[in-house]
Amino acid sequence: MYNNTYGGIRVKTSEEKWLLQNKKADFRGLAQRIGVSPLLVKLAVNRGYGTEEEIRRYFFGSRRDMYEPELLRDASAAADEVLSCIRGGGLIGIASDFDVDGIFSALILYKGILRLGGRARIYTPDRVAEGYGLNLRIVSEAADDGVRLLITCDNGIAAPEPVARASELGIAVVVTDHHEVPFTEKEDGSRAYHLPPARAVVNPKRADCPYPFKGLCGAGVTYKLMEILYRRAAIPEGELDEFLSYAAVATVADVMDLNDENRIIVKYGLEILRRTDNQGLRALMAVTGVDPEALSAYHIGFILGPCFNAAGRLATVRMAFELLLAETMEEALPAALELKTLNDSRKEMTAKGVEQAREKIEREELWKNPVIVVYLPDCHESLAGIIAGRIRELYHHPVYVIVDAQTGLKGSGRSIEAYSMFERLQQCGDLLDRFGGHPMAAGLSLPEKNLEEFNRRLNENAGLKEEDFRPVVRIDAAVPVEYLTEEGIREMELLAPFGKGNTRPLFAEQHFHILSGRILGKNRNVLKMQVENRTGHRIDAMYFGDIEAFEDCVSRAYGPEALTAMYQGRPNPSGKPLDLGFVYYPSVNEFRGRKTLQIVVEHYCRIER
Question: Using CA atoms, how far apart are residues 374 and 368, in angstroms rounded to an integer?
Answer without folding.
Answer: 13
